[in-house]
Design brief:
The strands form 2 sheets. The chain has a two-stranded parallel sheet with strand order 1-4. Helix content is 46%, strand content 9%. With 186 residues, the chain is mainly alpha-helical.
């Protein structure tokens, strides 16, 4: 089997969702496809963690809670059609009574517009939830679409009062954020 980037198994979720969409699949079917692909990716990460992770991706919040109680690393994919990965992650953080929610994404914070599309986007040092809500109203919510965060995730964060940080999704940034979090928990 080839390991080049043109291999079918090397494609990300967006690749499959775009092809399914162009084949006429409806949004709910695309949501279900995205969940299955995210669970497959979760399994790959579980295998890579070689026994340090809970053996299968939980499929609902109760399973997540039980998996966390095992003391192993928990890797999950999507849980419910129509929910973004951000909403799923926020619900998981709420369910396990997390003290902080780190949202690792392709940007290093919250901007007034997508910095990947607008080089003049302004980064906020801090933003009130009501102001973030106003920014989110203009985002696209189709399956596989770009979104910093969606309204469902924001409402969960709001009601749970979980401290939330948006960080760049790269190994060094995540490691630094996790080290800072572990210091805060001591």
């Amino acid at each position: 089997m080839s390991t080049d980037n043109n291999s079918w198994w090397w494609k990300d979720c967006g690749y499959f969702i775009n092809h399914a969409r162009s084949s006429g699949a409806d949004e709910s079917t695309l949501d279900e496809l995205g969940i299955e692909i995210s669970r497959l990716n979760a399994r790959l990460l579980i295998y890579a963690l070689k026994g340090k992770a809970y053996p299968h991706p939980p499929t609902n919040l109760t399973e997540v809670k039980l998996a966390v109680e095992s003391g192993l690393i928990v890797v999950t994919g999507g849980l419910h059609p129509g929910q973004s990965t951000n909403a799923t992650a926020a619900l998981i953080a709420e369910k396990v009574h997390a003290t902080e929610f780190l949202n690792a994404t392709d940007v290093d914070g919250i901007y007034d517009s997508d910095p990947n599309k607008n080089k003049n986007a302004k980064k906020f040092k801090r933003i009130e939830l009501k102001n973030l809500r106003n920014l989110l109203v203009h985002e696209d919510s189709v399956a596989g679409g770009y979104d910093l965060m969606d309204i469902v995730a924001l409402k969960v964060i709001e009601r749970s009062k979980i401290k939330t940080r948006i960080i760049k999704s790269d190994v060094k940034t995540i490691e630094k954020a996790m080290k800072g979090l572990s210091k805060e928990l001591k």
